[in-house]
Amino acid sequence: MNNYYKEIIKKLENEIKEVSLELDGSIALYEVIIELILSILSEIKEYILKNGFESIDGEIHFFKYQKPVIVAKLIYYNAIYKIETKKPYGEKQVKKYLNKEQKKLKKFFDNNIDFYKYYRSGNSFLDENFFVRGKHDIRLWLDTFYFEADHRFCTSHDYKVAKIIANDLIQVYLEDQLNSNQEKAFDNSSLNWTGSKTALTELIYALNSHGVFNNGNADIRLIAKTFESTLNIDLGDFYHTFMELKSRKINQTKFLDSLRDALIKKMDEQDER
Questions:
Q1: What is the pLDDT of residues 126-170, one digit of tens each?
Q2: Are 189 and 230 in contact (CB under 8 A)?
Q3: What single DSSP character describes residue 121?
Q4: Which residue has the higher pLDDT, 42 or 144?
Q5: If phi over 0 gives left and psi between -120 and 50 gives alpha, with beta otherwise, what is residue 90?
Q6: How far is C-alpha 149 from the chain's CA centre?
Q7: Residue 100 — pLDDT band, cuts 50, 70, 90?
Q8: DSSP secondary-structure letter at 141?
Q9: Quick check: helix, strand or coil at residue 82?
Q10: Which of 157, 95, 159, 101 is nearest to 126 (CA)?
Q11: Does position 263 have pLDDT exceeding 70, yes or no?
Q12: Is the pLDDT of residue 219 over 90?
């Protein structure tokens, strides 16, 4: 069985790589991969029903470690397919949508915390109940779908293991999407700095000196980087720019003074209305 499994999993991974090169980045990719996995599972099922297992240990090993790896791929790609086809438009809507998907993963974890502990801890004392066909125990966290499944090719908990593996992959995918969405929000920001780089550098150093970020513990480089990303500007060597500000013989805080004057003027104009 082990040799057969190695061959079949290698075949699946090669087919996924091949189709990924052809359909990279498209929804159709997930549709094709799902069909590939279903086909492989059908092959494995036929093999198992024909050849069986040499021992109980062999059966446990297959349903605990081997079959779940393949089914996890099916769960993962099916989940991503649904996420991508239902994803809304708009940065805020996408963020809300992805966070909602993360909550689904958390709910599964909370509902199956006991089995998570058993599986993640590498325990085996209940393996004959969990991973041998026909030995289910209704008191041990059974999912309803198990009662409708083909018990010749499943145990009470092999799908749950696959779900755990898949959810880890889905979590990584969602985090990547959230980070990408945040970076895209910065990239697509309509707020651009149209003043001089020297003026912005003066402002950044003033805010840093006043300790308004992270209780005064923020690194000047992080502050500068944040302003650059948010305002779509490259400050270049802002250390050098600051040294030039220091070397001014007259009015070292020219921009800050102009800000103060502009604000006072604005207030005076509103008082006159």
A1: 999 999 998 877 777 777 777 888 899 999 999 999 999 999 999
A2: yes
A3: T
A4: 42
A5: left
A6: 31
A7: very high
A8: T
A9: helix
A10: 157
A11: yes
A12: no
Q: Is the pLDDT of residue 231 over 60?
A: yes
Helical pair 197-209 and 254-271, crossing angle rounded to 10 deg: 90
* 108's tokens: 């599964």
Residues 93, 49 contacting (CB under 8 angstroms)? no
CB 230 within 8 A of CB 203: no
Task: Provide the whole-model pTM.
Answer: 0.66
Structure tokens at 15: 């087919």
Residues in CB range of 236: below 8 A, 6 or more apart: 197
Nearest to residue 172, comparing CAs of 237, 82, 76, 262? 76
Q: Which residues contact 208 (CB under 8 A, 6 or more apart)?
A: 218, 220, 223
Token look-up 């062999």 returns 58
Between the alpha carbon of residue 258 and those of residues 92, 108, 216, 247, the distances in Å are: 36, 57, 25, 19
Amino acid at 105: L
What is the amino acid identity at position 27?
I
- Mean confidence (pLDDT) of the chain: 88
Q: Quick check: 140 and 126 in contact, CB under 8 A?
A: yes
